[in-house]
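We were asked to recover a plausible sequence for a given structure. The inputs and outputs are reproduced exactly as logged, with field labels preserved.

PROBLEM: sequence recovery
POSITIONS: 184
GIVEN STRUCTURE:
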């Protein structure tokens, strides 16, 4: 048993270090974004084929996760004081993707795509962003009542997610993450 453990332990350490190295390695081809403003980095990432997935906040840092569907690659940049401080590769699961689905297009049981960040966005930009996050507009209608808001209903077939966006004066005023308005 000791011999087996002596042989297995170095192998496990090597495999663990390789997985950590890959998942936190510098994102090749994106290092030029370090030092740029967060908004500039977002535009650059979109221009390079990445889609914003989510942003997490931790103390003074924002961690923004981006997915490139062509490269099947998830990256994360750390923003501090409005500037990109680092950009690294992260596991596909950080972008709501699983490695088991990497070679086929069956992503049916994925974690829902984050959409709450679209609240208070200009409506036309929010709609473009919804499409880039895999949503398709299902319907639109004008609500009754005092506010007379315009509603759009979006569906993401990969995550089976139905989302309703409320618009007033060309701005998103409400994001309903689990809408019952989809025809699915």
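RECOVERED SEQUENCE:
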């Amino acid at each position: 048993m000791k011999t087996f453990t002596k042989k297995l332990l170095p192998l496990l350490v090597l495999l663990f270090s390789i997985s950590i190295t890959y998942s936190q390695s510098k994102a090749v081809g994106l290092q030029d974004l370090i030092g740029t403003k967060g908004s500039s980095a977002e535009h650059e990432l979109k221009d390079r084929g990445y889609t914003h997935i989510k942003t997490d906040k931790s103390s003074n840092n924002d961690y923004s996760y981006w997915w490139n569907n062509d490269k099947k690659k998830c990256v994360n940049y750390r923003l501090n004081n409005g500037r990109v401080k680092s950009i690294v590769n992260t596991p596909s699961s950080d972008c709501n993707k699983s490695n088991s689905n990497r070679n086929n297009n069956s992503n049916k049981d994925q974690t829902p795509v984050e959409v709450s960040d679209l609240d208070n966005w200009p409506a036309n930009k929010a709609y473009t962003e919804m499409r880039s996050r895999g949503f398709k507009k299902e319907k639109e209608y004008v609500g009754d009542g005092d506010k007379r808001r315009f509603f759009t209903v979006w569906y993401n077939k990969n995550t089976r997610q139905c989302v309703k966006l409320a618009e007033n004066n060309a701005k998103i005023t409400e994001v309903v993450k689990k809408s019952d308005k989809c025809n699915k």
